[in-house]
Design a protein that fits this description.
heterodimer, A: about 190 residues, Alpha-Beta Plaits, 4-stranded antiparallel beta sheet, 7 helices, elongated, B: alpha/beta, Rossmann fold, 3 domains, 6-stranded parallel beta sheet, 23 helices, globular
């Protein structure tokens, strides 16, 4: 590669580093009270908004996984991740771009039951959008859909004419494209030190 | 129960006792001999337990909780050990926060124990209840609230381990009053491992080799000494390394005293009010070796114009510091002593004479333009630099010198001739005015055999002067020098240089400081004439007890050189 190409590549990379986009932080921690605060104040201090957060138990007993989505530059995301790793009850933190993970969100929609009684459009919507009916009550129906944000939002737009009573969407959950096993990774982390 | 005083006995036989007593026994098991504190409602059971252990542990009753935490910082810094603080809930706990934040940014190991309201009252706005866990979380390395007495030994063991290991820092343990009262089975085991915490990173050999190769190929290497050198006790191996390859070295304010001032390779202080040569030559070196420092903005000035020509080797125990401010070409993550010891045999001998000459040439310029006039002024008024020179000469550079924040701090750091490590105590990162008097007190308690001189401005002194009461009560023989210019001098200097001399609220109408000292039965003297200085300093140093010397200095002295805020290090101003 010529020198000018190298220079160009370097400057493109630098530009990419400075560009704000979605980053997914995946953090393995002890399951302890107060830890959520210890993690989130790291974002507060840097005035980074948390777009979405999910905390749940992993397949390893006592170990939790935080999935946090932020809008930031690569540089800032990496600095934040390094700082999070310093929190005493954090095992490790990863940073992923959207194309390095598989991710999903779950959305629930509450619509009036009568919307389904007038013709079959609403039912079609559910079928054609990969959603399902979670519960049918006398007054309302709850529809569930799993997908990316734009997909769950699309369905919301389509349901609006039927009178959406309530809409809720979960934080993002994500899995990396690696094949590492959580328990073995934690073991390795421990042995390394 | 086994004797625990020496801290070597780590496991004791079980004994039933109240949680409060378990706190004291845990401290003894950690080898703690001194506590700085202030009692109050929510910590009374612990103070009651302490009453029975006075023969084995000394408690210094301060006059304000901020004084306790700064004293513990001074103690920790000169001993390179954990400082211990007691305070009550609510205002007692919140009064600690400034010192805890200071300890966090300056990596000082502390264990602060606060009393808390009974667990059933948590969250009810009970009398003197405050969420100290929430408040202290951003400024502690770790914190924890104990509501169950049985947790006390384990949590305190963890607290000491976290505070001291790796990059040190403050830990706060909040203990509810019911946990202090409750009976528990006491047994102590030191903490040596936490599964999510790896304080001493394993050094990567490839990085070490790359670092050595860069150093060996360097024509103009330059080494920066940070506090990490002192914390790791790496000063000897550092000296071996720089002497072997003749690498000129300079220090951050917290790295001060790691390298003796008259060492031929010691080129002085970095940063805003540092020396001329090290600042200018930062932008001429080809390899920059940073050891145990974090490239603070007061050191680097404009980052986009900082050492861009150099390959940077960053030796640092805290991996989150790598690439935080300055991109490292070769990061070597590890304990400074371990890294330097491994690096030493890989580094080749070298003399770098032309490069060293550059430092001397530039130093010559600084001497003529600034230093001579600071140390041997012709003007009528006393300059801060000459006071520091006299103190330095009279103590032969062997005192522990504690400074507050501002002009006097910069001048003292520039001109006191430190001869041994762990001898400078100052508030570097947070810049806490009011730090020096209590920190000096703690330093003297920590090292009673060494002279301790606190050099303080008239502004900072008035922020914590209540601690004269503590000095009086415990006969702590610290020497207090107030450099009085009746101004908040550093702010005034900035107003003069950058705000068109609009001296907005920086002039102080000061009390008679010697009269205040007399009120606490502390010997004192005020001088304003150059000729009086040597005699007054000698009198202060030879006095067996505490002593306050007020020196009236030039009212509008400026500290130079100066890298203006946001400027490049190479654009350091001489006037």
């Amino acid at each position: 590669m010529s020198n000018t190409n190298n220079v160009k590549l370097a400057s493109e990379l630098l530009e990419k580093d400075q560009e704000k986009r979605s980053f997914n932080l995946s953090i393995l921690t002890e399951n302890k009270s107060g830890l959520l605060n210890a993690v989130t104040i790291i974002f507060t201090r840097r005035k980074i908004n948390i777009e979405s957060i999910n905390v749940s138990e992993t397949e390893v007993e006592g170990v939790s996984r935080y999935t946090i989505v932020i809008e930031s530059t690569r540089e800032q995301a990496e600095k934040v991740v390094k700082r999070i790793r310093k929190v005493i009850d954090v095992f490790w933190a990863f940073v992923y771009e959207n194309d390095e993970i598989f991710y999903q969100e779950i959305a629930l929609y509450k619509v009036p039951t009568r919307a389904f009684l007038n013709g079959d459009n609403a039912e079609h919507l559910v079928r054609n959008n990969g959603a399902r009916i979670l519960v049918i009550e006398e007054d309302f129906i709850i529809i569930e859909k799993t997908g990316h944000q734009h997909e769950t939002r699309d369905l919301l737009e389509k349901l609006k004419p039927y009178g959406v009573l309530e809409f809720v969407r979960s934080g993002r959950i994500a899995m990396s494209k690696s094949t590492r096993r959580t328990d073995l990774f934690l073991q390795e982390l421990h042995n390394h030190h | 129960m086994e004797t625990l005083v020496n801290g070597k006995e780590t496991i004791t036989q079980k004994k039933t006792m109240p949680g409060a007593e378990a706190v004291i026994c845990s401290l003894l098991a950690e080898g703690v001999d001194t506590i700085f504190g202030y009692p109050g409602g929510a910590i009374m059971p612990i103070y009651d337990a302490l009453y029975s252990y006075q023969d084995r542990i000394e408690h210094i009753l301060v006059r304000h909780e901020q004084g306790a935490v700064h004293a513990a910082q001074g103690f920790a810094r000169v001993r390179n050990e954990v400082g211990v603080v007691f305070a009550t809930s609510g205002p007692g706990a919140t009064n600690l926060i400034t010192g805890i934040a200071d300890a966090q940014i300056d990596s000082t190991p502390l264990v602060c124990i606060t009393g808390q309201v009974t667990s059933g009252l948590l969250g009810t706005d009970a009398f003197q209840e405050t969420d100290v866990i929430g408040i202290s979380m951003p400024v502690t390395k770790w914190n924890y609230q104990i509501t169950d007495a049985r947790e006390i030994p384990e949590i305190l063991a963890k607290a000491f381990y976290i505070a001291k290991s790796g990059r040190p820092g403050p830990v706060l343990v909040d203990i509810t009053k019911d946990a202090q009262f409750a009976s528990m089975e006491y047994a102590y085991q030191k903490c040596t491992e936490i599964r999510t915490y790896h304080p001493i990173p394993v050094i990567k050999q490839d990085k070490l080799k790359k670092a050595a190769a860069l150093i060996n190929e360097a024509k103009r290497p330059f080494l920066l000494v940070g506090q990490g050198v002192l914390i790791a006790q790496a000063q000897e191996v550092l000296k071996d390394l720089i002497e072997k390859a003749h690498i000129p070295s300079a220090w951050t304010i917290l790295g001060l005293s790691a390298l003796d001032n008259d060492h031929p390779l010691n080129m002085g202080m970095l940063g805003m009010h540092g020396n001329y040569a090290p600042n200018v030559l930062t932008n001429e070196c080809d390899v920059l070796i940073a050891v145990g420092m974090r490239f603070d903005d007061r050191v680097t000035g404009d980052l986009s114009k900082y050492a861009r020509q150099a390959k940077v080797i960053h030796i640092e125990i805290d991996s989150s510091e790598i690439d935080k401010n300055v991109k490292a070409h070769v990061p070597v993550i590890g304990d400074a002593k371990q890294v330097l010891e491994a690096l030493l045999p890989l580094v080749k001998e070298n003399d770098h004479q032309p490069w060293l000459d550059r430092f001397h040439e530039l130093h010559q310029i600084e001497e003529e333009k600034i230093i001579n006039n600071d140390l041997y002024p012709q003007s009528k008024g006393i300059r801060m630099g000459e006071v520091v020179r006299h103190i330095s000469e009279a103590t032969k550079g062997e005192a522990i010198v504690v400074t507050d924040v501002g002009q006097h701090q910069m001048v003292t750091s520039r001109y006191y001739g430190f001869k041994s490590p762990h001898s400078s105590v100052t508030s570097g990162g947070l810049g806490t005015m009011g730090f020096a008097l209590p920190a000096a007190m703690g330093a003297k308690v920590g090292k009673p055999d060494r002279p301790v001189v606190a050099i303080i401005g008239d502004g900072g002194f008035q922020m914590t002067l209540q601690e004269l009461g503590t000095i009086f009560q415990y006969n702590i023989p610290v020497k207090i020098v107030i450099l009085n210019n009746s101004f908040l001098g550093m702010v005034r200097q900035w107003q003069q240089l950058f705000f068109e001399r609009r001296y907005s609220f920086t002039e102080l109408k000061n009390p008679d400081f010697t009269a205040i000292a007399r009120g606490f039965s502390i010997e004192s003297q005020k001088v304003g004439e150059r000729e009086q200085l040597p005699q007054a300093i000698a009198q202060m140093l030879s006095h067996p007890g505490a002593y306050l010397l007020e020196v009236t200095v030039e009212k509008e002295e400026n500290v130079f050189p100066m890298v203006p805020s946001g400027a490049a290090v190479a654009d350091i101003r001489m006037e």
